[in-house]
Specification:
By secondary structure, this protein is α/β, with parallel strands linked by helices. The chain is built from five helices and six strands.
Length: 164
């Protein structure tokens, strides 16, 4: 069994917990107090804040409006379909949104928009894999594991006007 390392830190929005395998970032959890709720750190995880200095710096820069793209080694774990969806999410430019249907069409699976939504909800690296940039077909804010308030804040941070 490979070691899993983690760090936790506070940002302008909430506490963040990141984890990785020593080479790549594998998960990011936003402890917002709503949505997915707090993360339980397994006993076998090893805290190593020094391993995540670059991730912490880039996340704080993004939340301060100073960074538009992340440059981190990531290794999200999921099915082939989930990884295809997450790769497509990474192609959504900062300050833009796509609908679930558009993401499905872009990966060549036009009728799989519900499956795209399910893959979005399993995104292990929110912020870095920008699932917050996916909206409903009418532009409404839908489905964000950390709560719609946080989704709205992230989109507004990127200059996107959200419907009331």
């Amino acid at each position: 069994m490979k070691n899993i390392y983690y760090s936790r830190f506070t940002t302008s929005l909430c506490e963040v917990v990141v984890s990785g395998n020593g080479e790549s970032l594998t998960s990011l959890h936003l402890n917002t107090g709503s949505g997915a709720g707090p993360i339980e750190i397994p006993d076998h995880w090893i805290r190593d804040d020094s391993m995540f200095k670059e991730a912490v710096r880039q996340i704080n820069e993004y939340l301060a409006g100073e960074r538009r793209n992340f440059d981190l080694e990531i290794a999200p774990e999921g099915t082939d379909f989930q990884k295809m969806v997450w790769a497509e999410l990474c192609r959504i430019p900062w300050g833009e949104t796509r609908t679930y249907r558009e993401v499905a069409e872009n990966i060549g699976k036009a009728k799989a928009f519900r499956a795209v939504g399910a893959a979005n909800s399993k995104n292990p690296l929110p912020l870095i894999i920008p699932c917050h940039r996916v909206v409903g077909s009418n532009g409404s804010l839908t489905g964000f594991a950390m709560g719609l308030d946080l989704k709205r804040k992230l989109l507004e941070l990127e200059g996107i006007v959200c419907p009331s």
